[in-house]
Design brief:
By secondary structure, this protein is of the alpha+beta class. It folds into two domains: about 5-150, no CATH class; about 170-355, Heat Shock Protein 90 (2-Layer Sandwich), CATH 3.30.565.10. Helix content is about 65%, strand content about 15%. The protein has eleven helices and seven strands. The chain has a five-stranded mixed beta sheet with strand order 2-4-5-7-6, with helices on one face. Strand 4 (about 280-290) and strand 5 (about 290-300) form a beta hairpin. Helix 2 (about 35-65) crosses helix 5, helix 3 packs across helix 5 (about 115-170) and helix 6 (about 175-190) packs antiparallel against helix 7 (about 190-210). The radius of gyration is 32 Å and the shape is rod-shaped. The two termini are about 25 Å apart.
């Protein structure tokens, strides 16, 4: 459920609830008790103040809802906030209403405002504020539960789709076809390199099979798979491909999505070879920041738009889109994904919040 819908729902419920409460008390309990128009307007002003005070509590309730760690403490916070809101309502109502009363303003306030007056006239307001807060928390909890249920259902679908996409990346037929052809050519030319390439391909496929059902892996494991992949591509392209790793030691045990880097690496090689001056330069960077874990994959060359990528042989143009969906599903907004293209260099940058890096 998006934010606009939630805001619209809040305003509808908030406005209609207060209007209904005002009409019921006006025409059922207070009808005919007003001495003049001014008395009626001051009576109406009381409910307008209640509307505004309860409206201002929305951010406080939202903050409390996000920070509270135990639902057991929720009634305590609700009562305290309702007491505060009732006091503000009581004082502001009297202070504004006193402007229309005859006599000295401050003398009237001192005479009217008292603990006895507060307890006598505001217990209904306190109950109303408490009910309003309980309704707010109840609706918010119900909406969040509904969103969580929807997210769980989407997570299953995305997991299935992601697994299919991971298999596509793991067993890309073009990648395998090119690798096997390279191995075949090397068998007669250089048996040692051919043997090494077979070993690298086997290690890459072994990693794919071992982690096909694993959601999170240490960054070090993911980098090992990347190195196997690069080793194969390096043997294929030789001096046309240059690789650089900038990995700090404090990032290697960070837990990240399995096969998160591979689609980025594959695209860097595939599209970099089509747009970059040779040699194609690819760098992989990982370091800690104040936000969490920063990962960057850069390649020399130009950015290829998705529509153009769709027309390229073997390209679906959905790699980065699927990466974003997997990140959204796994980290629920606790990440950043940016693409920068300048000076014949394309960089994909991912940042993951610290709280998600420990499994």
């Amino acid at each position: 459920m998006n934010t606009n819908y939630k805001n619209k729902l809040f305003w509808i419920l908030h406005t209609s609830g207060w209007l209904l409460y005002y009409l019921i008390f006006t025409f059922v309990y207070s009808y005919g008790k007003f001495k003049d128009t001014k008395a009626f307007l001051l009576y109406t002003l009381t409910y307008v103040m209640g509307f505004l005070v309860s409206l201002s509590l929305r951010k406080l309730y939202r903050f409390t809802y996000q920070k509270i760690e135990s639902l057991i403490m929720l009634p305590v916070y609700l009562i305290l906030i309702s007491l505060l809101a009732t006091t503000i309502w009581y004082l502001s109502d009297y202070m504004i209403s006193a402007l229309f009363w005859e006599g000295n303003y401050f003398h009237i306030l001192i005479k009217k405002i008292s603990l006895k007056s507060f307890l006598k006239t505001n217990y209904v307001f306190f109950i109303l504020m408490t009910a309003w807060g309980a309704l707010y928390f109840g609706i918010k909890y119900a909406l969040d539960w509904q969103n969580e249920k929807k997210r769980s259902a989407e997570a299953i679908l995305l997991a299935q789709k992601a697994q299919m996409e991971m298999l596509r990346y793991q067993l890309n037929p073009h990648f395998l076809f090119n690798s096997l052809n390279s191995i075949r050519a090397l068998v007669d030319e250089d048996k040692v390199i051919a043997k090494d390439m077979i070993t690298e391909l086997s290690e890459f496929l072994r990693y794919s099979l071992l982690h096909k059902d694993v959601t999170f892996v240490p960054l070090s494991n993911e980098l090992e798979a990347v190195k196997h992949y690069f080793s194969i591509e390096k043997k294929r392209f030789e001096e046309k491909l240059e690789l650089t790793y900038n990995i700090t030691d404090d990032t290697k045990n960070c837990q990240i999505l399995s096969f998160l880097l591979h689609p980025l690496i594959e695209n860097a090689v595939k599209y970099g070879m089509k747009t970059s001056k040779m040699p194609l330069r690819i760098s992989v960077t990982a370091r800690k920041t104040d936000y969490g874990l920063f990962i960057e994959v850069c390649n020399s060359g130009e950015w290829i738009e998705r529509n153009h990528a769709n027309r390229e042989q073997g390209g679906t143009g959905t790699g980065l889109s699927n990466v974003r969906k997997r990140l959204e599903n796994a980290y629920n907004g606790g990440f950043k994904l940016d693409v920068s293209c300048k000076e014949q260099r394309v960089c994909i940058k991912i940042e993951i919040k610290e709280e998600y890096l420990h499994g």
